[in-house]
Design goal:
The chain is of the alpha+beta class. The protein is built from 12 helices and 37 strands. The chain folds into 3 domains: 243 residues, Transferase(Phosphotransferase), domain 1 (Orthogonal Bundle), CATH 1.10.510.10; 188 residues, Sandwich (Jelly Rolls), CATH 2.60.120.260; 189 residues, Jelly Rolls, CATH 2.60.120.260. It is elongated, with a radius of gyration of 36 Å.
Amino acid sequence: MYSEQGEQEFLTELEILSEYKHKNIISLLGYCDEEKERISVFEYASNGSLDRHVDNASLTWTERIKIGIDVARGLDFLHVGGSTQASVIHRDIKSANILLTGNWKAKISDFGLSKITAINNEMDFMIDDACGTPGYVDPQYVEQGFFTRKSDIYSLGVVLFEIMCGRTAFLHGQEDLVHLVKRHYEDGKLFELVFRDIKNTIVPESLTAYVNIAYECLHNEREKRPDASMVVIKLREALEFQVDIEVWEAKRPKDYKEIIQLSKTPKIYSDVSNKVLCEMFSKGILLQSGKACLSVNDNGETNETVSATMFSYENNRLHKRISIKKSRFQRVVKIMDISNLKTRIKIRTQFLSPNLIYGAHLVFKFCDPRKFPCNLMYVNLKYQMGNETLHSYFATYGDDEWMMIELCRFIPHKKDVVFEVLLERLSRYYCGSGAIYLEGIHFRVISDAILKVKPEGYEKLKGVERDLKSNSNSNSVQQMSVDYDVITQLEDGEKLFSLSKANGKKWHMLSAKMVLYESSDVKCYNWKALDESESRFQEVAELLSHQVFRIKCKIETQKLSADTDYACYLVFKLSQKCHGLQCPVKVRDVLLRKNKEFKFLYFRSPRAVNLHNIERVPKPREDGLMEVIVWEFNSGNNDHVPMSLKLGCYEGTMSGLMVYGIEFRPL
């Protein structure tokens, strides 16, 4: 029914919400005012009003403080006027007028009773009509008949205690909440009113800060009530106390006190919060000798770096200890000849987290600044661990031009682990002839890993190997070939196709003869005839001593399912005389002339330290051959899909690689 009061409240709300826009004030999306029909459309707050959730046991103390901050922040925006020159007094702040979004963000609503006044006007309005809600309304308004911004603050204080006590201000047959709070506060028993389901989770300092500012809002004298901006500040302090214990205390390492005592400057850590302490730990703490740096990740797990000045060098004339900028240590070691490192490392860690997977990384950078096209650089570090000669092929590019080469992965059973390795050389061909700065060995927790670790005498990495897997998804390495129907031979005897049992999609296969590109003047392959019982094809190609070979063909899409993503598998095996192909192989799509990027693959299963998220690793097939992905594409809707790939190995040749064909399977 139409009324002048309803019309005025409707227009007031439209005026305010059209002018005052803030993340903690409900947004007006639209309205209708036609023939005495008045409709307002607001943003949707899926959790409804706050009064329905004050006794919600799943609403944590941290979330409750954040709701209080949101309300105070929205009220502060209204009181200071935002970008306008006028201030808004809400005049009906209560939990029923606080709306909550799906992620518990609070927004002030219902501005029908609000008034707009000049910002510098302290004496606001003599009120003839009643406003506010019993239990929330400022008692000075009841006595004196006028509202000020501090009257909103009183109502805010009531809402804050509703949030803390888990009940609304006015319940039929029960004592008024404000009277109850004041009586318990004066008796020193306010903690008894805290909502029972959150009582044991609250940090005492957080509750004290919260109660103090909420109680100030209820002060009988308006002048002594805080501004909304001060309420925001104090509630944030309450939140910081809570989060510092609830979140940051759990991220401290268990032996943080011992670590602090061993640091170079233990006094600076004595009076800081857990958050600041964790931030300092995450950046790294130098231990007393200055030869080790310890840092802590977000899970409270320790990483440790040992300075290169602790290593042994056979030729001191080619190894110099110097100071440079942007190093965690006072000195690093400059190595002049990277092809003859002659660096023996035997160090003991101090604070590794037991029973976690660690990677040991060599940290270095080139003395001459370099630009890298991608995050990986081929360096082929040769080194010895125990009686094994090993290779780590890639260095990853990090901050301040420092690079890391992973040497091994292991699981320490205690904090202090002896680590031994002999560094022999980096590839001069790929790294150049310049010098490097060696910073140290960095031991870092690896959350996603498949590794080989030696359980007996693990600290020296001696003993029998065994596979250890983390909880990560390792399907890219472990997954076997999918099962397919029997292959049907076509007329030319060289093209085959079938339907996948998994999803009914077509797959297609081409022989080596149809896909291997050979120039007229260079012999790249030996062709070997095969019986039908030995192979599906008549011939197999064995590569000769070349570093590069090409795959080039046109794929008939009629043999494939339309508009489907496919993987292209190279089907191969290694001959008995093949002793190479340990290193990674680069694959470049020649048709993408402007794109110089390439993919990596392996023809032999690599060590975990050489994976670097490279998913193209060989897998065994049911027919006794091997396969590896060399390309991915979409079949589209054209008659043909051109494919032209260039495969090249970094070291050695492709000699002994026997190519049977290419298989196209849906992803």
